[in-house]
Amino acid sequence: MLLVRNIRLPLTCPAPEAEAAAQALRILRVPPERAARCGVAKLSVDARHGKPVLVYTIAVTLRDEGEEPALAGASPCVCFKQPPQFRFPRGQAPLAHRPVVVGLGPAGLFAALLLARSGYRPLVLERGPDLDRRVQAVQRFEAAGELDENANIQFGEGGAGTFSDGKLTTRIGDPLCAFVTGAFLDHGAPEDIAWRQKPHIGTDLLRGVIRAIRGEIESLGGEVRFQTALTGLHVQGGTLAGIETTAGPVACEQLILAVGHSARDTFSMLYRQGLPLECKPFSVGFRAEHLQQEIEKSLYHEAAGHPALPRGEYQLSQHVRDGRCVYTFCMCPGGTVCAAASEEGGVVTNGMSLHARDGRNANAAVVVSVDGRDFDGDPARAVAFQRRLEQAAFRAGGGGYRAPAETVGSFLEGRGKLDTLRVQPTYPRGVTPCDLGGLLPGELSAALREGLTAFGRKLAAYRAPDAVLTGLETRTSSPVRLLRDPAALQCTALRGLYPCGEGAGYAGGIMTAAVDGVRCAAALMAAHAPAPGD
């Protein structure tokens, strides 16, 4: 495959994809009849100079693929790329029991998918319900404030990423990203995730994709047991010998632990069993809501609203006092703020968008980094810190899982007011005016004010005093990491246990978690053959 990069076209181009493909063939000096395929590999928007331009990378496959390497030097913007080949070796020693995967978020889902495709018939344990029952539980909570601690935006089939924007953006550059993208496409994800610069599936479409992947796992001999949580590990001589669950003991010698960033009871169990947990950096703050049209005016200027442009997105960061960083995270164009609590008496916010991203507001987490120095290196204190903030937010909201909120202008001045004008909060349980700065340690509030002020110099929408801040955002990532060997990917203190994904501290977001799930499954497979059939 040949990639022809940096084909730049104005918004006024009437058929930009066709024109970009034609330009790619002209650059290669290849007549159309010699091309077997010529299509978009990547599309981005360059709006740095106030006049947005579409920037294409075109993938060209020739009918005679043997001719492709010689054309790689046709221009500095042309390169030859071979499609990745995925080979996952299998070990010789057969397992006594089928492998177990704990958690059916992105990491667990993709670990189980690779194991199932390779003949290992995994058993998957998920503490929450299947997706249909989970959606019903979330809807009940949003409508009536009835929280189910095992069926919410954090727990249940699909994990926390199910109620998000379905973002697949990543910076890891791992070839396994193509494996994950291919699996999403195989199960009904929108085709443009293969070439968008910032691919997303959307919360609504992602649900069907997750059901379809689980269906493949089950069709290949895998088993999924819902509403079954891990409660303990049996260890013999430093090796995993079995597990305890809420449904009873399970024979297990190889376990992929992909519990997600909010499984605090699991973290406590691991800590009690003496496994090596450490503090991991994470961040806290709130959700910032702006009018989506104001974001696009800030990004695209007079071209805002042009149908060829994607919904405006941004990512901002600012290093502030004491070496901390204030940054935006999980920006959801045309989305809503979610009620993401998973424990009684705590308020947690998150954000989500549907595939169309056609809501009135944009939202993003605005957060400040914290790390082991804030908790004396104690992972239990890091979890307790998150919990204290969530409980403070619950009290400030006045109960019923209402959330504390404040307009940006008020927050910067420390007034504790919610002077809503154009931007109406979307948090479903309702909001209560509050001094958000008073809910956080003073050092963190000061850092967030400094960061927001800097953001206003970078993006005009952040200078709007009536933008709304809703708090608190505390679940940006896991506060702990379960140490693992970097080569074998097994826990350094327990053979047979594979700490995996975001909850174990090795991923951040859907794509990186899914890739880590594939990587852990591949490591397990490289050491063991499947258990004999029943």
Automatic annotation (TrEMBL):
Stretches assigned to the FAD-dependent protein C-terminal domain: 281-476
InterPro entries registered for this protein in UniProt: FAD-binding_protein, FAD-depend_C, FAD/NAD-bd_sf
Protein name as catalogued: FAD-dependent protein C-terminal domain-containing protein
Source taxonomy: Bacteria, Bacillati, Bacillota, Clostridia, Eubacteriales
UniProt organism field: Candidatus Gemmiger avistercoris
Stored Gene3D superfamilies: 3.30.70.2700, FAD/NAD(P)-binding domain
Domain of life: Bacteria
